[in-house]
Amino acid sequence: MNETLLYGREIILPKREIAHLDKEKIRINECIQQKNKILYCARCNQKVSVCLPCEICEKNCFYCTHCIDMGKMCECCCLCSINEPFPQKRTVHFEWRGVLSNEQERGSIQIIQAIQNRANLLISAVTGAGKTEMIFKGLHYALEQGYRVCVAAPRIDVCLELAPRIQAVFPNEPIIVLHGNTTEKYKYTKLVIATTHQLLKFKEAFDVLVIDEVDAFPFQHNDSLQKRVDIVVKQEHSLIFLTATPSLEQQRAIKKGELNCVDIPVRYHGFALPIPKFVYIGDWKNNITKKQLCTKLIKYINGSIKKQRKLLIFLPHIHLMQQLEQQLRQRLPKHIQFASVHAQDNERLEKVQAMRNQNYHFLLTTTILERGVTFSNIDVIVLGSEDRIFSTAALVQIAGRVGRKCDYPTGDVWFLHYGKTKAMISARNWIVKMNTLALKRGLIQ
Ligand SMILES: [Zn+2]
Ligand SMILES: [Zn+2]
């Protein structure tokens, strides 16, 4: 086996096959461990209670059902990995000719310093601040030190968006992109782009770990993923978190001085964030079922069309979205182009591209488009913004889809609701707070 495949990465081997391995060099850990008479999984840290006949040891064998999609962890197997050799300085070609705004520059410098000092840093930057560009120089510095670097994000879409942008900046650097649907075979690279879920396979692997969109599902509320962060970095390391809405835990750590934070309250183009407007629309679910919702909604759709803007309409549930789509097809004139999109939609990528190309007047969507996408010249409606799926972070992100481009820096955001929620109010308060901060610092007019 190629040794580099084990650098900072755990592979599963049957116990009977590890006898000949060099125990000095290879770190070996039992897959299923015992603590206070309770069995738990060494990879995902969850309790193990299922015991079934095993195809490896041909006996009854305990195994973990929680992380089985990443390879079966059973009692008769071990996790093996090797520490990567000490970093060697090298030259890395850097192909980026962009210009950073003053605020982006400030973030970029702090990231480089954090990496130099082996320190942790949180970048709290509003939607459309241009976070990705802020990390390029830091990545370049780290790679030239010979460090191994991972850029992780909770969602596949965000990883797929990041990968080509980062590859373009480091055209000669081999990159591996890891996510649940990947068909690419794993190879050792100094630069890794991965979903946070894929971090479960690494151990003491990275000198620098950047986690983008830390506020997103499934990372935010997943303990085993959050604990994993400390396991996948080397002893000396730098953790860089990027978010538009720091969690309460992070805000507390910042206040106590345990976590350094750079806050960037302004977009790269210097325009204020659009503030969501709340509109009460009553029992909209019932109105969809009774086919009575269209009239109200068509007013908004026509409003955007009149202003020659495109429109994204977010809904909390697929089946209601599909009912509404059918009703709109019956009610709207034929020349109005639109579609709906959700996570399991086979034409998802094509539809998002068609929206980017301005081929639709509007697009109905679930929360899959809440982040990681930029459309030019759009307004946004959240239909049923009171639904619990719309957390504060999600609503801030959704509102943040509007006005991202220099040519179209403004637009409208409507939360159409059946009763205001805490999440709606705190999302609006957060946005107002960021604008006020930017104004105070003289960053917007
Ligand atoms: Zn497990
Ligand atoms: Zn077994």
Describe the secondary structure blueprint for this structure:
Blueprint: E1 11-14, E2 26-30, E3 32-35, E4 38-41, E5 50-53, E6 60-63, E7 77-82, H1 102-116, E8 121-125, H2 131-144, E9 149-153, H3 156-169, E10 175-178, E11 191-195, E12 206-211, H4 223-232, E13 233-243, H5 248-255, E14 260-264, E15 277-280, H6 284-289, H7 294-306, E16 310-314, H8 318-331, E17 338-341, H9 348-356, E18 362-365, E19 378-383, H10 392-399, E20 413-417, H11 422-440
Parallel strand pairs: 8-13, 8-14, 9-11, 9-12, 10-11, 12-13, 15-20, 16-18, 16-19, 17-18, 19-20
Antiparallel strand pairs: 1-7, 2-7, 3-4, 5-6
The structure holds zinc ion (ZN) (2 copies).
One zinc ion binds next to loops.
Please summarize what this structure is:
29% of the residues lie in helices and 22% in strands.
What Rg is obtained from the alpha carbons, in whole angstroms? 24 Å
Q: In which range does the helix fraction lie?
A: 25-40%
Please count the helical segments: 11
Total beta strands: 20
Roughly how many Å apart are the termini?
61 Å
Main beta sheet strand tally, sense and closure: 7 strands, parallel
> Judging from the principal axes of the Cα atoms, what is the shape?
globular
The small-molecule ligands in this entry are: zinc ion
How would you state the average pLDDT, rounded? 92
Strand content: 15-25%
Structural class: alpha/beta
